[in-house]
Queue: 4 jobs
Job 1
Amino acid sequence: MKARGRAWKYGDNIDTDVIIPARYLNTSDPKELAQHVLEDLDPEFRYKMKPGDIIVAGENFGCGSSREHAPLAIKAAGVSAVIAKSFARIFYRNAINIGLPILEAPEAVERIETGDEIEIDFSTGEIRNLTKGEVYHANPFPEFIMEIIKAGGLVEWAKRRLAK
Amino acid sequence: MTLIEEILGGKSGESVVRRVDLVYAHDGTMPLIIEAFNKVFATVRARAYIFFDHVYPAPTVKIANLQKEIRDFAKRHRIPVIEGQGISHQLVVEMGLTENSKIVVGADSHTPTLGALGVFAVGMGATDVAVILGLGKTWFRIPESVGVILEGNPSRYVMATDVILHLLSLLKDYDMNYRAVEFFNVPFSLDERLTLTNFVVEANAKTGIIGEEYTGDGYVKELEIELNSLNPLVAKPHNPANVVPVEEVEGTKIDQVFIGSCTNGRFEQISKAAEILEGEKVAVRTIVGPASMNVYKRMIEEGVARKLIEAGAVILPPGCGPCLGRHMGVVGDGEIVLSTTNRNFRGRMGSPNAQIYLSNPITAAVSALYGEITNPEGAI
């Protein structure tokens, strides 16, 4: 599985309130949520991003509320992956559970700038910066998480457990 | 071995699958839980409760329909629904639901509040909670713990909120992600103990828990907090860890004060604020949100509600209130709020152009009287 798109870079502590403000939580329709993705951080984001683009951020991405609407909004907007130095734990679980690819890659975050063309190979964790001609590596997922990802998300993982 | 390692039965860093003794959700997170649940499961195999606290009673048809959907689901699966009686975390405590429980999961990030009762309680998202409903269990990565030992007793203007704000500034540059905080030697009442474990989430802690005796064995870090030397603190916009002494922001004009929420909406906290407002008039919009109907009832019985009403405050029905900007007390463009809640992220309470400051209920009440952020020391 691969992803390719332009990078949009933000800072540390991007919280779920700016990813999807609570005033838009009166729906669980991903398309509706996507219309407000990152609205309080960068109101232009949803107009300037193209499907496949990649969000790059610093430490503790997705901190705050447990709302699964946050990764849903990002995924439904067409973002192909989020690369961060670290993720807040509930967001980390939520993203994996709903199948939004996330990568912890501090070195990549240091180097990538907004507008860089990025290609990610999820099977190897290799992140290629086509603009700068550089290659970075994401931290590998713990074995347990890999099991869930390989199953295709938590719902599928649970189905298999039930079948046992 | 830390308290949490003992409860989860393993060493920090390990991932384990464990039975969940109690799982709960609210009107805000239930719709996505139902969606995920229905993809895989037919039967609920967990001890579950649902609370309507985020946007209750329903202000729009859309929300009324979502709540109807939740009721239908709950009825089908025989899950109790508690509507409008207060905030989930507070009600779990009041209803004694954690008795005989060691592991609790809530579909809300402030579920760790229950750690004040010595249980391991964590917040999770909708899909995780749906799977817990269906399987009765889930996986946990056993966190490393930071031991926080309190010493002495706080002065009369210092509350549990200040202990956490102080802790947030101590841990600002320390990586708390996936780690927990274990508190020891806590001199507070239950009302205030719940504030500690509720608010510690904002340090990015996975959870907080209060223990009896500190062994010192197995902790990644140890912190001592001298309560006697603490002074009232304030978190500036737009992050709870943006902490300064109240003097530094004294004189900041405010448009709204909110006293309440799962952080500071219990009887002790609201009555402390009411003592300050008694016989006075507030200078700005002042909203009080009891954490539960029991708190509200006691406020009426003990004359606290009268003091607040006569001072000009508006008392909301029990629930999350203005904390998350979805229902009552939403703030407008450019407005400045002083709130006793736990989050001051941009846009949290309404307009993304509003500014939210956080403080303890005493500072909030005194500031309501002056219409600006005021140091309670010297002012009362």
Job 2
Amino acid sequence: MAVIDVRNVRKSYGKKKKKTEVLHSIDVKVEKGEIFGLLGKNGAGKTTLIKVMAGLLVPDSAEGHVLGYDVLKEADRIRANVSLVAPTADIGVDPVLTVRQNLLFWTTVYGIPSKKMQNAVDEVMEALDLMRYKDAWAMEISAGTRQRLAIARALLVKHELVFLDEPTVKLDMEAAKMIRNFIVDLRNRYNITFFMTTHLIEEAEEICDRVMIIDKGKMKALGSVEDLRRKYSQEEEIIVKGNFDERVRNLKNFWNVEIHEIYEEEFDNIQRDTELRFKVENVDSEISKIIEAVKEHGEITDVLTKRLTLNDIFEKVIS
Amino acid sequence: MNSMTNQLRAIWAFSKREMIIWTSYRVNIWTWIIDVFINTSIFFLISLLVGHHTMGVYGTNYVSFVVIGLSIYYISYTNLGDPFPRVARIYWNGTMDLYMLSPLSYFTPIIGVMFRSVIDDYPRVGLAFLFGWLFFGATFAFKAPIYVLLGVIFIGFSTFGIGMISASSFYLLNFKRGSEPISFILQDVIIALVGGYYYPINILPMYLQILASFIPHTYALDLFRRALLPGASLTKPVLPLQYVLKISPLAVDTLALGVMTFTFLPLGLYLYYAGIQKARKEGTLTRWQ
């Protein structure tokens, strides 16, 4: 069952002449247990879309359901059943309370019964490696640790749907990796659905089952990273260097290949190499076949691959 | 656990959090005590100038009269003045979205964050009475406990209603920077001038007395002074409405406070709700967009 199934989401800010349309008829469908990534530049409408789906913002129009609740008529129910991690760690973290006091406060806000409060706090502190900071004031811990605290706060209640607005934005690589592992672990353990925005394309590539790229409030691409790679195929390359005979040109009959002669000067010798640039749909499925075929025409000195990253796709889609 | 219990638990958690924050600055406790002592002392010094004659229908002396004034000031100042800056704080620190994404009602966070101040007002009132009695010759009686109890409830809720009207302007009228005019005009202009904290309002010109008839402070002060000051009359009218309605002045005060409570409180809550709905349409619940 789809946890999010909304269509024709439109939102504009301002009045009449100064009206700015931020979302233009966006459709989103996210299945239970999915980690869904929303990519876009600043001002693309990512946060607005999250707020509409979380019931915080009233759209100009929208149809469909979030967690089975009508996105327009039952926004209050949606709000009570989703969690959100804001992009700034300081939001929801009180600097003059300890890490533990901060979390205990939020257990009451979220209506966790008194008997379960301590366990809920201990569980998220353990999972996010916050135990050693439990008695430290939030203002004394690093920005990265505060971000972990903010995520811990959002995960105190195991809501079915969690919105993460740039959850690793202030973290170093190690801390960001820990958060990503934690997200995947939570999904695997509790089947929680995550809807996340990120500027870090590698992050989306690493953990998102599917991604949507939006630009100026319009959906530009949607699918798994592999789907998008396929869609924007002919962009991946296998580059084979070596000394080959003339018959290597016959490979053009089987592959889309560009052949370049490369001259390199070394110790008064001019060395001639041939570089074959194969444009392929998928590096993995083609590389062994190409190497076998090329080997018949000479000696291979080097093989390079240029895979299409999500970043390449993003740049291509946005441009 | 039912929803009301959850809301009350949350209000308690907010208050506890505010208390931890407040007591983390230990000097706060001392400034709190000194502030009450100095306020009472100032009026004792003024009373030396005024002399020890009685305060008309309110009997007793000026210090006793002013201790009641200070008490109502303490109670109403928080209820009326706190909601707006508290909403502003929640907006600017970005937590409104997070509170909205919880089972809390729209009003629980705002009541929660100001509740410690409300709790704080009552010991402050107690201290003012204590200092007045111990050091400055104030005397008190306890003549009409039911009226006092109703008065405490009504002045609290009616001024909170006005406070919520003022808080709603944050979203409804977009008063997001600095102060807003509603509580300023009410608290710092009208109530300061005609509220009657420091003098009986029957010394004011009639048009100001009529203006004073529209604020709850006028009736609360009259009620508490009559009910708590020795020698104060329980029958002789002072306020314009007491001359119009030919019933006991304490009943007039209670009735007026009740009407104001049942007008301002629902109106304040409704306008605040409307403000939140407007902000949900405009995307201005928090500064984070």
Job 3
Amino acid sequence: MSQLQTVKMETRTTSQAKKDVILEVRNLKKHFILGKNQVVQAVDGVSFDVYRGETLGLVGESGCGKSTIGRTLIRLYNATSGSVKFDGKDIYSLKGKELKKFNQKMQMIFQDPYASLNPRMTVMDIIAEGIDIHGLAKGEERRRRVIELLETVGLNEEHADRFPHEFSGGQRQRIGIARALAVEPDFIIADEPISALDVSIQAQVVNLMKRLQRERGLTYLFIAHDLSMVKYISDRVGVMYLGNLVELAESDELYDNPLHPYTEALLSAVPIPDPETARTRERIILEGDVPSPINPPSGCRFRTRCPKAMDICSQVVPTWQEAAPNHWVACHLYNDEAKRES
Amino acid sequence: MAKVLEVRDLHVSFKTYNGEVQAVRGVSFDVNKGETVAVVGESGCGKSVTSQTIMRLLPSPPSMIKSGEIMFDGKDLTKLDEKQLEKIRGAEIAMIFQDPMTSLNPTMTVGGQITEGLMKHQKMSKEEAKKKAIEMLRLVGIPSPESRISQYPHQFSGGMRQRAMIAIALSCAPKLLIADEPTTALDVTIQAQIIDLMKELQEKVGTSIILITHDLGVVADIADRVVVMYAGKVVESGSLDEVFYQPKHPYTWGLLASMPRLDQSSDQDLQPIPGSPPNLLNPPKGCPFAARCKYAMKICTQEMPETSDVSSTHRVACWLQHPMAPKVEPPAMAVGGE
């Protein structure tokens, strides 16, 4: 590990200056108050950038805070603290016209295609709702746009006057994507967009999302728990554990060379549909369950399940550092000072 | 090898207001002693209906076993009455369900739910049953089982509940365990724990397992044989290696090629299967996959193909196997990208 010199925060400007940052998240926290002085620290101090035109994947197990991040970024929740800048502007202080513009530029695709479409509205009205709110088109033009969008996502004109219950899960997710595209956004947050779909349909939706990204230069934040699919679609992947980002790197780098023990365990736990690989590979089976985010462990939150935990892990929260170029990790194993002390 | 279960030409339908849904349309497969058979397919392909019919859990009406037989231990399960079935359920055939949150009784202690079966089927006394229940909880890896036994399901985490359910299912040492998507509701690290546990327990107890799943990754990890279902029919069945490395049915190719793999680079495009499965209210006359199949011929839409033998263990229902059919090569991604 000696070649992995600790590189501190300042070096990031040199290695990543060329890229155009569309979203800058710094020390974002979202806590939910349960009453009786109990606080769920759903997201607790997360920092990352998203570059224009890329797909950033966020993975982690249930309860790790990945969906909360998505919902906080699009202002469905207000952040407890921290800053989020979209196109250079702090999103939590936007008001009036600027806020409306932001709402247009950032859109979301939801997980459950059955629950996220209003059952009493026709597909035409569902897709055109954003167009109406932002006054982008009226009358014949409005209809023409919706039909164009339907064709873009692989549906057609006759679907426009039907209701959501007349569609299959895959088709509904296409409607959800068309709705997000209707206001011509730059940035789309996709919160588990394919987990409710069957395997053969998942590939249809993922290919559609990839095509749209190529054609329209979209930026995606792709939230999912399916690591194989996240690796496939993302340029970079962030791994979350119990409200913290533990590792962030380009997807091939993350999968070929994981640094954090949690990433290692997570990758080795993913079943691979190949009998020969399944017979031969070594798996790291983590003990126990994820602790409660109401009362998370001190220091590094993963230490209670970590096979490589040291003394320092329970005392000091590991810093978020660039352990290799463009490869960020929060773990004491990659902090030389911490290692010496322990 | 001794056969534990034989399903022969099973047809199951449901009566609905819109007509009869033919959920299972002529399914046949065997389960040998000590082996794990995975039944794979997408939602609505009839895999869960098949498993619940083996346990006879489907209420009738609306469900109807139209024809076929399920031979278990010399008895045809489709012909038994409730009283006879009660002797078999839990004792000889046990089941693990998908959702550990809803399939345990929230008003009973976990211990109570394990001892219930032991006292009924094995006529154990309360004391003996409790001892056995503690032993079972320890076997499935629940720490401090002595105190856990008197707790309720809500005090367990998702993974622990699934362990408790496995303890209940295995407590009477059943000959056959049906696991219906046992890991789908769990996170990957917990899923790995549960799969390992099932493999380990199978070695110790020697139970045969029917694993119902849509996750080919889990199948590759645990199964000995694979049955691929589509629209209520078995389209391909064979040993694990036969189905993964020499798949013969275009639907199996489609399934394998539409999944990204963690150990492969992402420059290959995924190859989705176009369209969606047929409506079983009015299933197509010919091969149910014909409408989505790249290789479909005229005959595919007219007649259901016969099941043909590729090897003594590998069977496939596809017209491409007919000697007069053109030879087609499966897509590269379907055979492990080699």
Job 4
Amino acid sequence: MSDAPALVVENLSLAIGPAGLVDGVGFQVAPGEVMAIVGESGCGKSVTAQAIMRLLPDAIRQTGGRILLGGRDISAIPERAMRAVRGQLMSMIFQEPQAALDPLTTVGSQIAEALRQPLGRVRGEVLRMLRDVGISDPERRIDQHPFELSGGMCQRIMIASALISRPAVLIADEPTTALDVTIQAQILDLLRRLAIERQTAVVLITHDMGVVADIADRVAVMYAGRIAEAGPTAEIFAAPRHPYTALLLASIPRLSDVPKSKLAVIEGRVPSPSEYGPGCRFASRCPRADARCAAETPPLRPLGDGRLTACFHAEAMA
Amino acid sequence: MNTLEITGLKVHFPGRGGAPVRAVDGVSLSIAPGETLGLVGESGCGKSTVSNATVGLLSPTEGSVKVLGTELAGASRETLRAIRAKAQMVFQDPVTSLNPRMTIGEAVGEPLLVRGLARGAALREQVGALLEEVGLRADHASRYPHQFSGGQRQRIVIARALALRPALLVCDEPVSALDVSVRAQILNLLVELQARHGMSTLFVSHDLAVVRHVCDRVAVMYLGRIVELAPRDELYSEPRHPYTKALLAAVPEPDPVTQRAKPRVPLEGEIPSPANPPPGCRFHTRCPLAIDRCRVEEPAWRPVGAAMVACHLV
């Protein structure tokens, strides 16, 4: 993973009307690496993914920053050129595979479409891809429609169609949230294996710290449109240095905790974009907040162990 | 007397192709006073159907559901109405559980008002006390649901469920629609209320870590049946049924060190349709240990140590 990054997001800012949604988000992903963006509803993780794919709803504008794919800034290229990027250099899979697949087209034709070829010409390649994503009996499945398949199988089809053109980057937006745990485990194993085998850089959008712990090499924790903390998954989980990360981790019931014991609670609620003040957006809920936190935005700064933390009190958290 | 006693419960629905969908197909369980029983399983296993039958929202095709000794199967409307006062339900989605045109005071006070238990100043006082009990303020009573966050709305739903001081609380995925940090608040509240009032709880969830956190005993369902029922610590430290083992192995734990060292129990394939369950043990099509006997002979429901298990190989 010492190669040049496949994807670099620099200082990305997004806004809806006058309200900022995402503020200065940046990260990079190397080939074969899984980078998770984790956070609660409204933190900006999904719009960040949409911005990378240039699939933002009309009301949301990119107000700053660059998105470099293989070194080229794609954030301002014309939509025509972007169409060649999507599906070829960069693909996306979604939470609801059944909704994302075309109900009237056979599975095989949908996967072939990603190669911009009729199925007849690439049938062998599609069958190989189906086998590679763990579809049993691919000879039969290739001619079936999405409604004939379970949710887990549809997600495998989505992954097949996203990866068959060997894109450099895969954006996976909550890819296992709609699936049962035993199926989720299968899909996560599959994503990890394919990322390594095909050297795909994966951006995984999720709310689930368990999913992050399972497959992410690195993680960025987002809160209210900003990155609170980012770095290697092992370091962040072992010793969170942002109070939000620490509280979030402590609030999750674990198989190892004391049953019925009190879980850590984050008081209050996430501010909406119109309520963002000049300081740290977590300050109103933070047990460590002081006057400076309310007045001044803490910069996302390196702490020397490969991580970045946006908190004035990061040293005291150690 | 047990608060809840379910014996041989079957709930079948008419199927599209003629064969009935056997959503629940022979479930027996009981909940003692003050006890919390967790019911876990994946989508389509029948756990929500069991919880709906428990509060009389669905009538059993066969079998018996008794709340505080009173039979719900075939009960008259008056009996069902009386039982619903004793068995209250909290659903997954707090947004659709509340009428947007009712103030939360009206919503929480409604069970007391319609049963003629309180009105006027006495009602307002009780509603205020209920709101405070779930961590809201008495003066919130005049506001509408849209003025509250998801977590606060689930508190309101819980306050309404508590209004009649039920003996049994049925919670169907009560925290699944909530963000992680809010989930912790609601779980803390449920544990606290349970300790204070000593009510029995049927806690339905797909999340094994959440169930472990709040429950005393746990039943694992697969395709309309319970495959294992055991005291919490027993079930989590020594799962016996291969499905329980696979479920536990599949829970992604929020700790990269434990999670990555965990042995994988890969379950092949998908859950079969409840309209056409496999013969023999229903889990045999996905079970890594299945032998010929599992494909033809239904395993008996029998005690093994402190647990009850349905598996030939345990």
